[in-house]
Amino acid sequence: MTFAHMGNLWIVVKTILEDLGVEVVVPPRPSRKSLDLGVRHSPEFACFPLKLNIGDFIGGLERGAEAVVMVGGVGPCRLGHYAQVQEQILRDLGYRCEMIVLEPPRGRLAELLAKVRYLTGNKPLGRVWRAVRFGLEKLSALDTLDQALARARPLERRPGRVEDVHRRAVEAVAGAADVRAVRRAAAEGVRAIEGCVTPEAAGDGAAVLRVGLVGEIYMVEEPFANQELERRLGRLGVEVRRAVYLSDWVRTHLLPNPFRLRRRCRASLVRRAAAPYLGHFVGGEGLVSVGESVLLSREGYDGVIHVAPFTCMPEIVASSLLPEVSRDLGVPVMSLFLDEHTAEAGLVTRLEAFVDLLARRRAALGAGVRPPAARGTAGAGT
């Protein structure tokens, strides 16, 4: 069985399925080669993630996989149609594989567990839940390591060292055999990452520019898709916080809330923050992109970067509203719509210019000078 990559999610999927006795074929990491495969065999105006997924699936099938696991979706986002299109593409290429689609349970966890149980040959529900819970423990640990990496990158003593430490910590979490080992690996990893920062630099943490990263979840989570935005910004001296981490998304969308504290959860805050600009669901993370941009601005972030696939309908809606958010709250917002044609040099130039803008605004505010008004987004396009 194989699947598509999205950040470190492969570790979680592999853990859950192997715990349940399923043979897993991990595809090669997304690369120019796999992207070229996906582009060659996908409709020209299909979403960028669909093309990357096709490349991943072909890589897994070439390694011997006989089935593909794909998620479904609801609302205007085209994700809900991916699986059917991808299955036909793979069949046209001669691959005779089963496409297993996991539709979102909309808060009904039993439905998700039943589908996972089908994947695993009707293993007992209790065993399925234990495997899922162990996988979620790893997911939470991986997100914790990513957050520590984001804090340390702009302050590290030797460029690149913190990424090596982070990679070893991720490998330790991936290889952990039980919950205690996962938590120990995560705690040791965070300490090692923090050890890459000098005490003097740590004391200067308040001076570091902070940027929120919002947008379509695949583009936010998959470094190859967003052209290593977090790494590039970190090396420019910027601390990046993703608006949505995978563990947060799972808690919000998949797990029941036994205490009914909906008004106090982040998702409820996001909806209320977005309400003056967007009062209803538009598919994907469109509503979240608007609401999180508002919250990040209120929380003192210096700027917001909005990233999405070219032609993504929900994020086009969000990008049309973000200039108003920027004007109202005085925080610069830059929208990036990316696809296989996006040039690295152009992206780097825009990031450098945006960071320079944020630094000048921070300096002006510190000097008591009113900075230039934020005039909507700092740009959008590929």
Your description of this structure?
- By secondary structure, the chain is an alpha/beta fold.
- The chain folds into 3 domains: 9-123, Rossmann fold (3-Layer(aba) Sandwich); 125-206; 208-382, Rossmann fold (3-Layer(aba) Sandwich), CATH 3.40.50.
- Helices cover 54% and strands 9% of the residues.
- The protein has 16 helices and 6 strands.
- It has a 4-stranded parallel beta sheet with strand order 4-3-5-6, sandwiched between helices. Strands 1-2 form a two-stranded parallel sheet.
- Helix 1 packs antiparallel against helix 6 and helix 2 (32-41) packs across helix 3.
- It is globular and about 60 Å long.
- The two termini are 34 Å apart.
- The mean pLDDT is 89.
Task: Produce the secondary structure layout.
Elements: H1 9-19, H2 32-41, H3 48-62, E1 67-71, H4 79-92, E2 98-102, H5 109-119, H6 125-152, H7 161-175, H8 179-194, H9 199-203, E3 209-215, H10 217-221, H11 229-235, E4 238-242, H12 246-253, H13 266-274, H14 286-298, E5 303-309, H15 313-329, E6 333-338, H16 344-366
Parallel strand pairs: 1-2, 3-4, 3-5, 5-6
Task: Provide a compact summary of the structure.
The protein has helices at residues 9-19, 32-41, 48-62, 79-92, 109-119, 125-152, 161-175, 179-194, 199-203, 217-221, 229-235, 246-253, 266-274, 286-298, 313-329, 344-366, and strands spanning 67-71, 98-102, 209-215, 238-242, 303-309, 333-338.
